[in-house]
Design goal:
Blueprint (H helix, E strand, L loop, with lengths): L1 H24 L1 H12 L6 H25 L7 H20 L1 H6 L5 H28 L1
Length: 137
């Protein structure tokens, strides 16, 4: 299970570094990426491009935080717990805002539920690692 945790943490961190980097440095390209990857085509793109930069900076931070513990995640339960909380907040957002995501961003319900499923899987993996790490302290 530790190998699965390390692999997931590496993929999650790489994803955050990638999306954070393109969102901050190349928001136009980021919009195209999000449209293809998430089926996201928001009505108001100009405003979103402005928001992508600080969002990208935070994503870069999340990616770097994950990468710093990827070689020994079990001994960093606070970082795993923080990333778990991030994913839980994203799940809550995607469920609570599903109507708006469909109407304003054009995200089809089935695509939203696929994203939620991926987030739930990640939450289970990270929370297992955090719980295991806390039990060792």
């Amino acid at each position: 299970m530790n190998t699965i945790l390390k692999c997931y943490l590496f993929v999650l961190s790489t994803y955050h570094l990638w999306t954070g980097g393109i969102s901050y440095f190349h928001p136009g390209f980021a919009m195209k990426f999000y449209q293809r990857f998430y089926d996201c085509n928001p009505v108001e793109q100009r405003h979103l491009r402005i928001i992508l930069r600080p969002w990208g900076a935070l994503a870069i931070f999340a990616g770097m935080a994950g990468m710093t513990v990827v070689t020994d995640p079990i001994h960093h339960p606070a970082t795993l717990g923080s990333l778990t909380l991030l994913l839980l907040l994203r799940i809550g957002y995607r469920i609570g805002m599903r109507t708006e995501l469909r109407e304003i961003s054009g995200i089809a319900p089935h695509r939203n539920w696929i994203s939620i499923g991926c987030l739930v899987l990640g939450t289970l993996i990270l929370s297992w690692g955090a719980a295991t790490g806390w039990s060792w302290l």
